[in-house]
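Lecture 7 notes: from sequence to structure.

We start with a single chain of 558 residues. Read the sequence below before looking at the structure.
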Amino acid sequence: MPNDVYAPPALPKGTLRVTPIGGLGEIGRNMTTFEINGKILIVDCGVLFPEEHQPGVDLILPDFTPIKDRLKDIVGVVLTHGHEDHIGAVPYLLKLRQDIPLIGSGLTLAFIEAKLKEHRITPYTLQVKEGQKERLGPFNLEFVAVNHSIPDALAVAIKTEGGSVLHTGDFKMDQLPLDNRITDLRDFARLGEEGIDLFLVDSTNADVPGFTPSERAIGPVLEDVIARAPRRVVIASFSSHVHRVQQVLDAAHANGRRVALLGRSMVRNMTIAADLGYLKVPDGVLIDFKKAGNIPDNKIVYMSTGSQGEPMAVLSRIVNSEHQIEVGPGDTVILASSLIPGNENAVYRIIDGLTKLGANVVHKGNAKVHVSGHAAAGELLYVYNVLRPKNVLPVHGEYRHLVANAKLAVQSGVPVERAILAEDGTVLDLRNGDVKKVGQLDLGYVYVDGSTVGEITEADLTDRRTLAEEGFISIIVVVDKSTGKIITGPEIHAKGFAEDDSVFDSVRPKIEAALAEAAQSGSHDTYALTQVVRRTVGRWVQASFRRRPMIVPMIIEA
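Now the structure, written as tokens:
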């Protein structure tokens, strides 16, 4: 939580207010609001995937608190591309107001419409493409082609009375992309000539020197690995990585293999991409998973989800022997994606598990089976020099990425005070080319846990971690209502703490003595007695075992 939380002042007419709601200090939850003259435009609305210290959590959403009371003022949501960290929270926003217009490219809208169908929401959409201009209330929008690890990504220029903003979304500058659609630096240069007052720019690879390699470098490597594989090949990637799936289809085809798609989201997204022409499927290559078992082991490739070690994704289930595919000696598994920060341990557990099963595991660490979708430092410097923005706000990255990006901006000539380091909830006002920090909102994580949204708190997660790491002890004592003396108990049960409940024999007399002392002092209140038991057992456990389990006493009056 930010230390310097303070409310912004009323927004003056003609001033553009920019507030990152998510995506600063994290890889995910990307969402920024732009407000002027009483109207709000949102760019992106994504999710963050949970880490190990958030047990039981399915997704993490941006905190919609700043806009919950302003839903009628939202003129639209611009979606820069179809990755989950940019579109995944849209269903939860539309549950607050279903008719908020969604603006995006053909593939992006197709992905979000399929997702919304599962939530039984039919959205209002406006399909746009590079070069197109649209007006939404006080916002004049212009869309620019950018290259990323998913087709049809767009940057958006937002022109208002308060100033001009360019938001890159996620991008890189692959000069030989698979779909021949490069980041349009000519449009960037033209926008720069017209004047960019504030540049919001992808920071994910800002601390990586040089240039991100081309996607085309991956194809021959995949083809070679598949050619040398003696048995089955399982390849894991993001379910929306159309370019990577295209390369897998082409490599399998070149080696005379068939491909079966695994995972509901993978099947859904690739069906959409193929129907819209973004995925070119060679004749006869795709086969339904149910029929794949009839294909010889050396003639099949499985394209799956689970490259980040997600517990419910296909690859994790294979490792845990909970999937129809049983990986063994001679099989090859390729992890064809990057490591999202925070997922390292989960991914290495998957690699170890697959290796124990006898598989040959190929990943970014030992072969060139993935390149990033984000611009490295060299590309970012090019863009700064082309645009010459007045102010820069690094977005989309952990704090070290934001700092590295701000330093690049300064190296390219942006004054240090105009390379703005912000965090989720920082409120920035833009007027006459000047950007000022005017507020800091207290925004938190909103957890999705099963069917509940926002009900799980940090305290709940602390309890879950305690249960997982330290165990659980329950103590049941029946006491006389009038005297406070023990009638039955203490009855002690533990989970995840000790092999045998006999270890508690030494603490029972301590509980009895503590309750007798409390009764003598006239304390018969069940809550007070509960606290007496909790303190007594807690001190004993800490002294005897150096542990801090969850202790749940229950005092019953009779």
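The longest strand covers residues 486-495. Keep this in mind for problem set 3.
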